[in-house]
Design brief:
alpha/beta, Nucleotidyltransferase, domain 5, six-stranded mixed β-sheet, five-stranded mixed β-sheet, 37% helix, 24% strand
Length: 300
Amino acid sequence: MSTGIDIGRSGVKITSGGQRLPIFPALACLARPIEEAAEAQQTAAQTLDHAGRSWFWGETAQIHGRAQPGNDAGFETSEAYAVILRAAVAQARMAGMPLGRVVLGVPSDAGESVRSVVIQRLKDLLPQSQLRVVAQPAGVLAAVASRRPDVLQQTVAIVDVGRYSTDVAVAVRGRPVAGSLLSLPGVRVAVESLAALLRTRAVGTIGFEALESALRSGEIMHRLLRLDVQAEARQARQSLQASVLEAVARIQALQPDVQTLILAGGGVDLLDGNGLPSYEQAPGGRYAVADGLSRIAAGL
């Protein structure tokens, strides 16, 4: 048995075989005193020690630390990421998931220096385990291949539309093509666009989570006011559409003979499918990458 861990900017997904743990926010911050006794007891479940300091993680970091999603390129080498990874391993262990073989996903553009930091942190937590760090699109391909083994005989393009980045890869007969791993802006580009469009309508700063939710709902609660932002959200989503279309264009330039385009990630529902080439969506929804990583881990 094996386990896959997908630490995306929107949440942490952990799977093993058919078992999936609840997604928790990929957030961490230094702990702070909690005055209310009952609340302090509840937050203890999402508090851990790291590098000699006490940290909140998950929903506790979101609520009490007002932590925002990591939206910079250094997230995977940050101390917050180290805390989130420690929390993920602890949650998997508490759930009785097998940790002898573990695969962790990172963005496509994560270089060797980033991967070396991540794998070392994983080794520190699981020194006796067989471990691997792979690009997140590899998990998507493995998830699709579990239902459609024929894709491992094709030239396939994977576009994983995440919160921070849109990760791209091309595989020929199951093998990643050199130079095809790249990352373009993900949902954050639509969030940033929406924030700019609302600058004259809303006083102060609107949080990332609220803006991302508004991209789907067309409304936002800010300072006790409910704002109708359907027009702005529609316009902002076009920036994400443009990022994905750029990814497809780069794929077509690199590998004109692509037979299947696979879309995955939490941002797919923000796209206008009519404006995209023919594609299929990876199974598993937000768990697609983690499901595939678990399958890769089984082969270690």
